[in-house]
Amino acid sequence: MERIEKLKDFLVKDPDDSFLQHALALEYLKQGMDSDAKALFEKILHREPGYIGSYYHLAKLLERMGETNSAIQWYEKGMIAAKAAGDHHAHAELQAALEDLKPA
């Protein structure tokens, strides 16, 4: 919880810092605070759709929460964003996760 508090302190100075918000969301995941993590990942991606790393984590979280349709949508949105950014690695990672999720 100490890391969460430190990240929150940093965010007081720069509340829209996507890097800090992403780090905080990951800490929330570690603590089992799934709804807080979900809200933060969504906030990042609505504000900054080019923040590629958050797509995978949000979709995986939704998948784990049983929200399969939402997970699929976020994987697909992430693939579009990754392709637009020229991030072939992230695109491939998102595509593989999507293929694992979708029934054959």
Please provide a written account of the structure:
The chain is 80% helix and 0% strand. The chain starts with a helix and ends with a helix. The protein is an all-alpha fold and 104 residues long. The protein has six helices and no strands. The model has no long low-confidence stretch (mean pLDDT 95). The longest helix is centred in the C-terminal third of the chain and has 18 residues, at 68-85.
Radius of gyration: 14 Å
User: Structural class, from helix and strand content?
Assistant: mainly alpha
Main sheet attributes: strand count, strand direction, barrel closure = none
By CATH, the topology is: Serine Threonine Protein Phosphatase 5, Tetratricopeptide repeat
How large a portion of the residues is in β-strands, by DSSP E? under 5%
Shape: globular
Q: What's the CATH architecture?
A: Alpha Horseshoe
**Which homologous superfamily in CATH is the superfamily?**
Tetratricopeptide repeat domain
